[in-house]
Model the fold of this input.
Amino acid sequence: MVSIGMKLNKTKSQFFDRAKVQNAISRRERKVLSRFGAFVRSDARASIRRRKRPSKPGQGPTNQTGRLKKNIFFVYSHSRRSVIIGPTLLNGSTNAPEILEYGGVTTVQTVRTVRQRNGKRKSIRVVKRVHIEPRPYMGPAFEKNKDQKLPGLWQDAVIGAA
Done:
């Protein structure tokens, strides 16, 4: 029968500091998720292109005013330990970013100039409901980076911690 003995000194230096380990993990996690958010935001912005014609369903949306492209942000949520990536609301109450991503029905206002009987021109507003086919920009950017970049970011974080 073989017996192996160990003697442990009960000093604090032999135990790991739980708070220190958790803080190190939190910093690395925040860094990885923030970098992931930046990659997704960058790819989503790149899919919104400037063109003269409207985009086709399934393509990224056309950049007409530039506001959608400028209003895509990401933020690390410490309480949820996650990253939130996406566009802010445009014009306060419009749901244009959501309709572009998923498709749906919305109202569109256009201004038309009509000639009256007396020969004068008059501008009138025409409001109509239109169905918009999806033109996803956030989902494809997320999926691309989830598969291509995220594993490498975590690997670098784990190797850096070792």
